[in-house]
Amino acid sequence: MTINYDGRTFRKAGGGDGTVARYQQDGDLVWADFAGGQVRRGTVTGTCGPDGTLRLAYTMVLDGGEVIAGHTVNVPQRTTDGRLTLREEWERYGAHAATGTSYLEEVD
User: Fold this and answer.
1) Residue 80 DSSP SS3
2) CB-based burial of residue 21 (10 Å sphere; 0-12 exposed, 13-18 middle, 19+ buried)?
3) Domain count of the chain?
4) Residue 87 sits in which domain range?
5) CATH at 101
6) CB 44: neighbour CB atoms within 10 A?
7) 27, exposed or middle or buried, with CB in 10 Å at 0-12, 13-18, 19+?
8) CA–CA distance, 106 with 26 (Å, rounded to integer)
9) pLDDT tens for residues 20-72?
C-alpha cells in the first residue's frame, strides 16, 4: 500500500478530544504539528516505510505545562470510503511513562 501523508489531517478515532494533526511528507520523511483538546502544542517527526507504516518520535506540551515525549509506530488501514485509519502503538518516557494503543482517523 503506497501512501503519501502530505496534507492529510488526523484526529483520535470516534470524534477525538479536539486534537488535530496535519501531516507533511518529503520522500520517506514525515512530520506533523498538532494541537487542541489538552494539547497546547505537539510535533511528530519520523519516517514512512514502503507499506505506509510510520515510525515517529513525538513531543507535546499540555495545558498544565507538562512536557511529554515518546515514540510511536502507526500502521495504516483503509476505510471503505478510502480514508485512512492509523493503529498507533505508543510509548511515553520519563515521569509520564506509559504504553498503549490508539486509533487515528483521517478527517477532511
Assistant:
1) coil
2) buried
3) 1
4) 9-107
5) 2.40.128.30
6) 21
7) exposed
8) 19
9) 999 999 999 999 999 999 999 999 999 999 999 999 999 999 999 999 999 99
